[in-house]
Amino acid sequence: MKRIDLNALNGAFIGGRWTPTADDRRFAVTNPADGSHLADVADCGADEARAAIEAASAAQAGWAARPAADRGAMLRRWRDLLVEHVDTLADILTAENGKPLAEARGEILYGASYLEWFAEEAKRLYGDIIPSASGHNRILVIKQPIGVCAVITPWNFPNAMLMRKAAAALAAGCTLVAKPAEDTPLSALAVAALAAEAGVPDGVFNIVPSSRPAEVGAELTGNDRVRKISFTGSTGVGRKLIEQSAAGIKRLSMELGGNAPFIVFADADLDAAVDGAIAAKFRNAGQTCVCANRIFVERSVMADFSARLSEKVKVLSVAQGHESGAQIGPLINKAALEKVERLVADARGAGAKVKVGGHRHEAGDLFYAPTVLEGVTAEMDVAREEIFGPVAALMAFDSEDEVIALANDTPYGLAAYVYTRDLGRAWRAGEALEYGMVGINEGIISSSAAPFGGIKQSGFGREGSHYGLDDYVSVKYMLMGGLGA
Length: 485
Ligand code: NAP
What we know:
Low-confidence stretches: none
Mean pLDDT: 96
Helix content: 25-40%
Largest sheet: 7 strands, mixed
Radius of gyration: 23 Å
Bound molecules: NADP nicotinamide-adenine-dinucleotide phosphate
Number of strands: 20
Number of helices: 14
Strand order of the largest sheet: 14-15-16-13-12-17-18
Structural class: alpha/beta
């Protein structure tokens, strides 16, 4: 197996070259599991962001002009390299993010699956011919790349959030400048090294790591050469980027925060619901945008469900991500840990009962014990805010109408989950839930074949599936005349 040299991943990746900042400014990347130092990475500002935009802009026409099959073949080679280097990439991901190695491997393969998917979709960017009213002409519709895209990604899936944007953008013929999260830039730089190896031309894929997100964000949103911003992160930052993009009327995709309801009806297969809740709640230590945030359980089965869930939560293995068998790693940083502590303290103070956990974990400074809270109510902060930690908040309900109303009573609308064996109820709930995605008797819903995205304040735009390319193309209409006698 080839190794990616961590020491080489210290520059920005601009125009196909590893580039220091003009003043050689750097920031440190550390391992959240033990605080150890991993690397010092170029700390880009507006100047480097502008240079990356210029490189992407210079590469744009050539990349768009390539046959779609060529672009697809390159994405396919890139995908193969990710798979070939899965162990190294997972190692880097676990080191900078903290998630267990098995989850990190899964994320790399998940990220690679977007390259595979869009390598194929590139060839299917079909247009349309529409009969016109006159008969002397035809309406032609073609799809063209939007142009230079700027993408901003979060730390919780440092590989996959970048790959699912980059794969679609490059397949459509767009070039790209990415700003990864400050906590996890190494995964992005590592895939840049592999893009170059796959033959992706200089300037098509650029990475500007930074500890100055507002400065880089201002350049990306303010620069007229950037035609689209695609953001995954919190609703607050998304709102700011939308405002900043207004002056330049840029195309936007926003994958924002969530507050997912996970609804268990009394007729559900309770074992399947418990397993689904474990997967939807505790993956990545509860730090995913689609994590079950409010677990609604019909009152008649609450005691049973809570007991079964608690048994499984108690035995989750909390350990550094590189340790074998680890299931729950650290939270990403101190602020994240303190937020979880605050939410649990608030819930306790308002009457919720801690069934399991409810405290920090001795595995390290940033670890929180997997927790089950009973008696949570809709007014508590833990039910209103995105928890982003390993805390299952259980709430009882009595009727279908009541739980749908409770589930929809949030500004967010990303993912929801329903467990029931009643087909009619599954359809009714699936349609009534105001969310972009609904898992029915499934706790893991994301796949490259499916359109991922939210509604309401969880954002707009879709990633993955054949809908995913639409976010990176403009529809052009041409009227072909002179056909009639
Ligand atoms: P965040 O604070 O919004 O950060 C996301 C990205 O935005 C990071 O790269 C961050 O850089 C950057 N950023 C911060 N302030 C900025 C500014 N003023 N201008 C430009 N960029 C800026 O979110 P996070 O805490 O990293 O991630 C967790 C959030 O992401 C949660 O709300 C989660 O639900 C959401 N999320 C959504 C999806 C989805 O598909 N809907 C997927 C994953 C995560 P720094 O790292 O340097 O701060």
